[in-house]
Design brief:
Number of helices: 3
Shape: globular
Number of strands: 5
Order of helices and strands: HEEHEEEH
Strand order of the largest sheet: 2-1-5-4-3
Distance between the termini: 34 Å
Length: 151
């Protein structure tokens, strides 16, 4: 989805985030449809987390729509031993962070929102610069002819 140079920039952003917040145990940038863009998730299957993030994102978006709360911004899940936080990252990506139970949730949100904004700018910028596929030409129709419909 993103070129190699941008993928390296995404990975560097995730690694800087983990260095700034010591109680983060993993960070993942994914497309909104569940494809891994970059990850720093030792001991965790990134593809599975990305797919689950996309599923949770779908439910979260429906919840914000149904309750009139506007567009999706973030989702926080707390388990017995830690947190999973997902943040909007531009129009086509999300940032998912895995954190230990002792983390300061305010700091998690602060750093997650900032990193989500930077990751969103990288991904959206890469998508804007990406060459768009040429439109498929439609066959010319003779005047008075019925439109062709494939069988």
């Amino acid at each position: 989805m993103v070129p190699e140079a941008e993928a390296q920039d995404l990975l560097a952003e995730l690694q800087r985030l983990r260095a700034r917040v010591p109680l983060l145990s993993g960070a993942l940038a994914a497309s909104t449809d569940g494809l891994v863009l970059a990850h720093d998730t030792p001991g965790v299957e990134a593809e599975g987390v990305a797919a689950l993030t996309a599923a949770a994102l779908g439910v979260a978006i429906r919840m914000t729509d149904a309750t009139g709360r506007g567009g999706f911004r973030e989702l926080l899940v707390r388990g017995e031993t830690g947190y999973i936080a997902t943040y909007a990252a531009g129009s086509q990506a999300v940032l998912t962070l895995l954190a230990e139970d002792r983390i300061n949730v305010g700091r998690l949100h602060l750093e997650g929102r900032r990193a989500g904004s930077r990751i969103g700018a990288l991904v959206d910028g890469a998508l804007e610069r990406a060459p768009q596929p040429a439109p498929v030409p439609r066959p010319q129709q003779q005047p008075g002819a019925l439109p062709h419909r494939p069988v």
